[in-house]
Amino acid sequence: MKTLKDVISLKFKTSESEGVIFHGEGQQGDYITLELKKAKLVLNLNLGSNQLGSIFGHTSVTTGSLLDDHHWHSIIIERHGRNINLTLDRHMQHFRTNGEFDYLDLDYEITFGGMPFSGKPSSNSRKNFKGCMESINYNGNNITDLAKRKKLEPSNVGNLSFSCVEPHTVPVFFNATSYLEVPGRPSQDLFSVTFLFRTWNPSGLLLFSNFADEMGNVEIDINEGKVSVHINVTQVKKNRIDISS
């Protein structure tokens, strides 16, 4: 396909912070990739570069944040030549691509949910999308419906289910005064804890535990946006360990 105009729209939800949403490329060096990186949406686009290096077409635009919240997010990409409107959840960003070319020349396949392994360094470092998509529309083609009715030819549909599986995790919300207290394990000499958290507050106590027999305590907190671990041991000379990240 060699197009002057493109309209691509879809909705997605995921709890993963990395993943390729869709990808297309051509023999002339053109490509378009929409992916999640660090829970932000990144659109990479190249309408063509020349071999002399005087025309460099690569363009990258980032929008949004915390998109791995397992809520539905909508994307619309509207392109007319080098002019692009990228809309994420009704927030539109307008930009113009680098280079001097107006046509997007994609003569290989377009893939949704990942990209084929091409042997290029860029392909094996990217993760496939893990989550749900709906209402995928590419230049007037309802991709979701065509895939479900197996009308995409040629196509390679790998292990898709046409339903959205909800995660089994149960979140807990804490306000400024609430806390959760659980019994310790006094007979064990190993302390191990793991959890995921999200907050808008720059400071707060995440975890506190006293060791048995008044041996000390461990504390995990957020201080000005940084996570710190404090371990106090009462019976050694260097009795405090502080780890900050």
From TrEMBL:
Q: Which Pfam families match?
A: Laminin_G_2
What SMART domains has UniProt attached to this entry? LamG
> What highest taxon heads this organism's lineage?
Eukaryota
Using the record for this protein, list the coiled-coil segments as residue ranges, or answer none.
Answer: none
Residue stretches making up the Laminin G domain: 1-164
This chain's protein is named CNTP2 protein
